[in-house]
């Protein structure tokens, strides 16, 4: 991830608060969740930050995922399913949800472990590493290539594209849009030619194979639909996991007592991952559009209004979570919305959870004891997604732990 030449207007209302802190933004988000501040001071955008209000708002059929004119991140057509609403959106979710069920992503578990272990091999002898570069960046991209069944040498196409759309270059919004459009065109061209290749030589044991054969309401997908789905998956499924893994490892590096608990008892890992996701909220917000005048919980939203929906605030909302600024692996009811809420809740939740749990399991098996490298600090970014852009650690490897989950 790079931050060069990037123009950054405040990404979220939370940045306008005195309590805003790049390293620990949770306090500012928690303040917003109380609902005292409801509009951005720069452009007047309406903001929703309380968990209950967000959930209620997203249930309303007049709440749309786009303004119907502009599409996300360099796309020439609506992203499927993110830019669709109502019946069309439901149609694609019925088709896609089964492909991302826990059962259908489980086959990737051993691959995730092998890939994690191979990346660790590259730095374990050194006793130090910059984890964004050495692990968090490459791992989700490699898994993505495995998932879609693409050639490994095509990886740079996706890395360049997702970097361009998540952090576009350009001094103005128009320049940034143009930059994203150029990157988007390269990806469309790649996906069109890859699909032609795959139709000529069909196989069903990966996701593209699944797209080519799955049917809903008696029909299969067209090439254009498959391209529009894959285009979104590149945007939604790589950087989010990279950022989450970096947040998880940064938090665990700074909290040795809690880390020792998961090293001693791996059955805690699933809950620990969820709780750190709640606290860190690597995807902090989304935007929604209101198609007609509506009132939610006594608050009016006029037709045409854009709304900033703050998952990161909902996740530290004191009205919903006891002691929200404490990370508690034993929290009894962790109903966080880090994977969104409402119709557009994350399609890849099961895969993301699997990637995080298996990568962290393998990492702690081989490197149970680590800390931020003395004299260094973690460099945070909170623009687009929250991530530890630079995560330098030192550690004592467990030299007796077998490589690759003990299977090699
Ligand atoms: C820890 C990692 C992840 C996090 C935190 C995350 C979070 C989210 C959030 C907050 C949304 C809602 C976006 C919005 O409303 O604008 C979303 C939607 C989505 N995510 Fe994820 N995501 C993650 C990983 C993945 C993965 C691995 C995939 C697939 C490979 C994926 C695919 C999608 C798709 C397709 C949508 C759109 C769903 C729809 O519009 O119906 N995500 N995700």
In short:
The protein is α+β, with helices and mostly antiparallel strands. It is built from 16 helices and 11 strands.
Notes on the protein architecture:
Helix 5 runs antiparallel to helix 7. This protein has one domain (13-70, 79-145, 234-406): Cytochrome P450 (Cytochrome p450). The protein contains 16 helices and 11 strands. The chain is 45% helix and 10% strand. Strand 5 and strand 6 (299-301) form a beta hairpin. The chain has 408 residues and is of the alpha+beta class.
What keyword list fits this structure?
alpha+beta; Cytochrome p450; 3-stranded antiparallel sheet; 16 helices; 10% strand; binds protoporphyrin IX containing FE
